[in-house]
Specification:
Shape: globular
Number of helices: 13
Structural class: alpha/beta
Order of helices and strands: EHEHEEEHEEEHEHHHHHHHHH
Distance between the termini: 26 Å
Strand order of the largest sheet: 5-4-3-7-8
Number of domains: 2
C-alpha cells in the first residue's frame, strides 16, 4: 500500500471549519470532510479577516470603466483595497502549499463564476469572473491546483485536482530529503503519470535527473520542480490518458482471456465518453497487476495517485474533457 505525504491546502473557512458566511452559516463539503486527516488544511475567510462582521451585508463585484471593485451595497462600503491588502499579506505569509479549495461564487474567494455587476443597485449581472481574493490566488499561483468546491463535485475535475496536490506533496518530500536517489525513484514512479499530463515536460525531466552537468542538489531540485509543476499544470486530455491505459494493457496481452480484454475496452469506451471515472479503469489495471505480479505497474503513481476513498463521492453529472 502506497504511503501518501499530506498535501497542504488552503480552504475556505466556511466549508466545514466555522460559521463565517455572510448569513452566519457554515457549509458541509464532502470532499473537505474526506480530506480531514489526509491533508494539512489552512482555513481562511477573507471577509472576516478584513473586519467584516458575522452576519454581514453581502458584497458584490462592481465593474465601472473597466475597473472591478468589491462593494458592500447595504453598508455603502468599498472594501476593495482592504481585500487586496489582506490578499497580499496572507499569500506572502503562506508556507509551501499544494493547492486551494475556495468557495464558489463568492465575490471574495470565487475563482471563475462570480457574478459581475454594473453597479451596486439591484440590476442584472453583466458577466462572471474571479473574486478579489480568488483572483489574487490565481495570479500568485498560476501553476498550482486552484479549484472551488462546486467544480470539485465533478469526478473528472476532482480526480485531476487530487492527483495534482498529492503529486506536489510527494515532490516536496523528495526535495526535502536532499537525496538524488529519491528523485530518481520519484521520476521512475511518475513516468506514466507524466506521459498522460505532458510528454514534452516528461522528456525534459529525464535529462535533469541524469544530471550530466553535475549540478548541485539544490540546482537539480529547483530545475526539476519547475518542469514537474509545469507538467502537472497541463490539463490531461483523454487521448493521452487512453494511450497510457492501452500501454498498460500491453503488459497483459498474452495473459488475459478475450472476455477480460473486451470488458476492459468497454470500460475504456465509457471513460472516453465521460461516463466513467478514470479511477474505475485504473482499478481494473491494478487488479491485473496484482494477479500477475507486474511490479512496474504497481509502482506507478498513475494507477494510485491519491488515497482510496477520495473519489467515492456523488458526481455532479457534468461532463469534463479529461
Amino acid at each position: 500500500m502506497r504511503k501518501f505525504p499530506k498535501p497542504t491546502l488552503v480552504v475556505s473557512k466556511c466549508l466545514g471549519f466555522a460559521p463565517v458566511r455572510f448569513n452566519g452559516q457554515m457549509l458541509s463539503d464532502p470532499l473537505v470532510e474526506k480530506l480531514r486527516g489526509l491533508a494539512e488544511m489552512i482555513p481562511v475567510c477573507p471577509e472576516v479577516e478584513i473586519g467584516m462582521g458575522i452576519p454581514r451585508e453581502p458584497v458584490r463585484i462592481v465593474e465601472t470603466n473597466g475597473r472591478r471593485r468589491l462593494i458592500q451595497p447595504g453598508a455603502g462600503r468599498d472594501v476593495t483595497d482592504a481585500m487586496l491588502d489582506f490578499s497580499r499579506s496572507f499569500l506572502d505569509g503562506l508556507p509551501p502549499v499544494d493547492g486551494f479549495i475556495l468557495k464558489s461564487r463568492s465575490p471574495s474567494s470565487g475563482i471563475k463564476d462570480v457574478k459581475i455587476y454594473p453597479g451596486p443597485q439591484k440590476v442584472a449581472s453583466i458577466g462572471k469572473g474571479a473574486g478579489i481574493f480568488g483572483g489574487a490566488v490565481l495570479d500568485r499561483f498560476p501553476l498550482l491546483a486552484v479549484e472551488d468546491e462546486g467544480r470539485l463535485s465533478n469526478f473528472g475535475l476532482r480526480e485531476t485536482f487530487l492527483t495534482r496536490v498529492f503529486a506536489h506533496a510527494a515532490l516536496r518530500k523528495v526535495s526535502a530529503s536532499g537525496k538524488m536517489k529519491e528523485l530518481v525513484r520519484f521520476q521512475a514512479e511518475n513516468k506514466l503519470l507524466l506521459m498522460a499530463y505532458s510528454q514534452k515536460e516528461m522528456r525534459s525531466l529525464g535529462p535533469i535527473v541524469a544530471n550530466p552537468d553535475r549540478l548541485s542538489w539544490d540546482e537539480v531540485a529547483e530545475l526539476y520542480r519547475g518542469h514537474f509543476i509545469a507538467a502537472m499544470a497541463a490539463t490531461p486530455r483523454r487521448p493521452a490518458v487512453i494511450n497510457v491505459l492501452m500501454h498498460a494493457l500491453g503488459y497483459f496481452k498474452d495473459k488475459l482471456r478475450p472476455a477480460e480484454k473486451s470488458h476492459f475496452l468497454r470500460l475504456l469506451d465509457k471513460y472516453r465518453e465521460g461516463e466513467l471515472p478514470l479511477s474505475v479503469v485504473n482499478e481494473l489495471i491494478r487488479s491485473w497487476a496484482l494477479r500477475y505480479e507486474e511490479e512496474y505497474l504497481l509502482g506507478q503513481t498513475f494507477f494510485a495517485p491519491f488515497p482510496e476513498g477520495l473519489i467515492g463521492l456523488r458526481d455532479s453529472g457534468k461532463g469534463v474533457d479529461l
